[in-house]
Amino acid sequence: MAGARTSGAVRPDEIRQHNLSLVLSHVHRDGALTRAELTQRLHLSRSTVGALVGDLAQLGLVEEVVPSGGERVGRPSHVVAPHAHGPYAVGVDVDIAHVTVAAIGLGGSISTRAVIPTVPEMRPEQLVDLVADALPRLRTTIGSVGRVCGVGVSLPGTVDLVTGRVGVAPNLGWEGVPLGDMLRDVVPADVPVVVGNDADLAVLAEHQRGNARDCDDVVFLIGRIGVGAGIISNGVPVHGRDGHAGEIGHNVLDPSGPLCHCGKRGCIETFLGESALLALAGRALPRTDAKVAELFKDARAGEPGAVRAIALVAEPLGRAIANLMNTLNPERVVLGGSMGEVFDLARADVEAAVARYAFVSDAGVDLVLPAFGTDSALLGAGEVAFTALLADPH
After folding, report:
1. What is the CATH number of the domain that holds 185?
2. Is the pTM of this model over 0.85?
């Protein structure tokens, strides 16, 4: 019909925004790239890539360096890198005994951090106040350069990714907490806030640029006071209907096992959680970061009680990994937190238990430690805080 508009038409400004997003996302994920590499990856002309890089540089998001020297003949291609003093995300990683707050630049570099001890059973209001206090301190520490482009929060609990509402975080004692809204009330109005589960964010960071980068079916098994799993299947994060996917800490390994605080017996957490490790080693409870660190240090030094605790945990850890393999068929399982420590100390025993309980014992699943150590969840929080900027560089 004459005068009808084509619903699929794309405006030039939309194409430009899309291409700016592509260039910035590649540099953010992979670090310094030459213009030639960007041209090849994006299938755009050299002049178009040059113009896009120029726009991003003017926005203070990337910077260019012209290489000098070398043996190559001809004009060297400009190197495009994240701007060292560009926008930064604030990553917040909530653990039971402490909160880590960091300024994270494009490319995933942590420019400064603060580890703040917390009181037992910290209330949501206390976390919000802590974040509100940390923002100006981070700004002062890194100087007047850059700007906050987002706040990402990682915590051990179920989270609605759209609203940031915490469904249940049993080890924090939280239930039905509108944390996203509470944080939005104390951060600048133009700064997006994203809240996520710690294991989900840890697997995101490792998949983006860590030890799960080259595979699309991966599980990140994280051990702290509780146990959780972040899942990526066929390249897509798996959260479930309301964020409960991966909450494996309360899957039952043995119904006649130890009593769990959730009311059931034999939950994975009662075998693999850090309180269980301390009890097996004959260490005093309640659990603290210092006690857990000392246990692993003593195990490495050969202290009998600590070595015995690690040996006792290796078998149920292997069984839990095998159950994940049987259910999700991952290519790789990343073991973080205390699970990574146990695996590092008792690799042969864990692998033997995996082989014993996996449906296909020679499935060829890689068991690896995280590339970012204890920072995976923190960097994942920074990653989701960059989402809005990467989608629409401005």
Report:
1. 3.30.420.40
2. yes
